[in-house]
Amino acid sequence: MAKCDEGYRCEVCGEDVMSIVDSDLYLRYVIGHLDPEKLHVSPERHIRCNPVLAQCIRDERVESAEVTGPFALTELDSDHANQMIELVTRGYHRLWEINAEEGDRDVTDYPLPEVRVRYQ
Question: What residue spans of the chain are helical by DSSP H?
Fold first, then answer.
């Protein structure tokens, strides 16, 4: 079985990240927080294992994450916090769209439209 068919181990909990909708790596790539050139060498985590990012997702499919300290949304400027919530939630929804697509997929089409423009 090819490595890409096996899933990737979460660097936090050590369990396999079995679906793109659980992938912190692909979420960061989709929203433009991970350079495409580093996608294949960056560590993987479950979204739930990165509470700083998970706290920004507004979707009933994700258990809410509470963060305290300087990275908590409540500690950020409210405009910036709202922008992060909007971006990360859109990115999470994009992961579900990608997951629903059938057949071969081009990873360069994964990012949100405005991110794809930046990558080109």
Answer: 3-6, 24-30, 51-54, 78-100, 113-119
**Residue position matching structure tokens 């495409």:** 36
Q: Go through the chain and tell me how many residues it has.
A: 120
> How many Å apart are CA 26 and CA 52, to the nearest integer?
15
Note the pTM of the prediction, 2 decimals.
0.90
In one-letter notation, the amino acid at residue 40 is H
3-state DSSP assignment of residue 45: coil
Per residue of the chain (120 residues), give pLDDT as tens: 234 545 689 999 999 999 999 999 999 999 999 999 999 899 999 999 999 999 999 999 998 888 999 999 999 999 999 999 999 999 999 999 999 998 888 899 999 999 999 887
